[in-house]
Structure formats: structure tokens, C-alpha cells
Design goal:
By secondary structure, the protein is mainly α. Helices cover 55% and strands 7% of the residues. A three-stranded parallel beta sheet has the order 1-2-3. Strands 4-5 form a two-stranded parallel ribbon. It binds adenosine-5'-triphosphate and magnesium ion.
Amino acid sequence: MPKRIFSGAQPTGNIHLGNYLGALRNWVTLQHEYESFFCIVNLHAVTVPQDPAQLKARTFQLARIYLAAGVDPQVSTVFIQSDVPEHAELAWILNCVVRISELERMTQFKDKARKQRENVLAGLLTYPALMASDILLYQTDLVPVGHDQKQHLELTRDLALRFNRDFGETFRIPEAFIPKVGAKILALDDASKKMSKSDENDHQRINLIDDADTIRRKLKRAVTDSGTEVRFDETRPAINNLLSIYQLLTGRSQHDIEAHFDGKGYAFLKSEVADATIDFLRPFQERMNALDDEELRRILRDGAERARSIASATLQQVKDRMGLVGSMNLG
Ligand code: ATP
Ligand code: MG
């Protein structure tokens, strides 16, 4: 079997530079080495309160973003999660493999549940079982994600190992691919938090659809650390974050970048990061808007069909192993 990758993003909120640098960017390079599945995980998006009209619009916008980022539908399978019902079906089964105590330990659940206060949906707790199902359905080898998804990946591995042990060898055991730089892009307003789609403060992130003025304004307001020196230093997270963004967008070496900023202040750093971001996003946004609806529909339809052919084979195997028979199994 070819080596496979699977990854996805939720069509919640505005997709930002952190999502791109932590995840999408690596999908684009890895797609040529692996058979790749990139999913718009809309079933995950309904684990928190949401607006249906917005969810619809964001689903297609996210598909455009995948393609504008460089995901090539000729070599990768791009699809919408709810087009492949096997995801929800395997998720149910994995809900009967995972333990409540494991789900309650997940930091994403704890963080997001805290924000909802009461009325926390059961789906928010069982989110990792759906994510495990996404990955395991495709017999995935590698999952390129940001650092925040590491814990969910470990749980996915545990569930796959447990299933294989209890019901027989069924799932390939996936590994996380977490980049050295960019796996955790920090919020612009608070270096103790990650840049995040669901944060109510739009100034904490640079959205991939932001215009030049907005980008400059957000970067001007970005927090910095004490001191004045501009160099890579993890003990000064805000400056380090801006430098990491600059490094990833320009492709320049750390040494080269430190020489470029030597003796310069924070205002210069911010304006250089703004320029690099704008230079990157301008053609990106043009590519997003150039794609017509008919073409997008075709890509997503073909993607769903291809994904289903693989997902249904895995699910059938899972059901056989568990003794979940249907009428056709009689006799
Ligand atoms: P939400 O707040 O709705 O959970 P999110 O910003 O965390 O949104 P997701 O759709 O949950 O986005 O994640 C999509 C991908 O982006 C995942 O691989 C995740 O690890 C990665 N990612 C999310 N935030 C960052 C970040 N700040 N830096 C690097 N990678 C990130
Ligand atoms: Mg997230």
C-alpha cells in the first residue's frame, strides 16, 4: 500500500497564518511524497455553537484556501467530511473504544469547555474519537498538524493499538508530523496563547483573507517583549514569534535574518513582517478568487468519491472484526 497522509482543518472562524504555517504549508510539500487526503472537517465544526449559513460559506471558502495554498487536486484528494458518512460511523464505533477518562484529559476539550461554561456539547468531548476516525479510515501513516494536535494524535494511536489488540490487526498506526518552526504560531496580542480561529479577538491573528491595511494595523498593535534586540530567542516569545513568521514566509536563514535586523528596532521588524505577509497573501488571495464554483464543485465531488471508496473498505473491515453484521451476512 502507498504511504498516506491525512489532515484537515475546521471551517470555523477565519483561517489564519498559524493554520497555514503550522499545517497547510507542509501538506503542500508532502503531497508529492505521499498519497494525500485533505479534508474540510465540518463535522468537527458543529461541536461548538455555530451559524448554519456561515458554516456553509466557510466550508467552500476553506476548500478554496486549500487549493490556493498549493494543494494539487491532481495528486491529492480534497473533500468535505460530511460527504463521506463513514467518518461519523467509525466515530461512533471508536466512541465505544475510547474511555471517558481519556477524553476528559484532553487539553483542547478543557480549554474549549471552559469557554462554553455550561451547555458544553457531548460532541466537544468526543471530538478526538471523530478525529481518530478521520485518520484511521485512510490507513494513514503521517498526519501533518500543528503542535496543539499532538495530544489528539497520541490518543488516535492508542485507540488504533487497542482496537488491533482486541479485535485483530485492522488499523495502521499513524504518526504526527509537527514542523520544527511554525508548529505553534502565537497570538499577536498575547504570547501565552496560540493564534486561533475561534478567539473572539480578531486582532490576535492574521487571517489569510485580510487586506494589506488590516495586516499592517494588526502587526503594529502586536505585543513585544522587554528589551530591544531583534534575534531568535525562545525566552522572548513575542519577538521570536514575529521572527519565525518572517523566516517561514521569506525562506531566509536565521543567521541572515538576524543580520538584517541587527541594530534595528521593533517598529522596523513589524513593518518588515507586514511586508512579507502582504507579499505572500496577495497572490494567495488572487488564486483563491480565480477558482470558479463549477471547478470547485467537481474537485470536491471527485474527492468525496475517491475518499469513500477507501473509507468504506476500512469501515467494512472494522464491522467484520467487531461482529457488527448486516442482513447480507446471514446464511
Ligand atoms: P479553532 O480555534 O476553531 O480550534 P484553530 O485555529 O485551532 O481553530 P483548527 O481547524 O482547529 O484551527 O486546526 C487546523 C490545523 O492548524 C491543525 O493542524 C492545527 O494543529 C493547526 N494550527 C492551529 N492553530 C495553529 C497555530 N497557532 N500555529 C500552528 N498551527 C496551528
Ligand atoms: Mg483547533
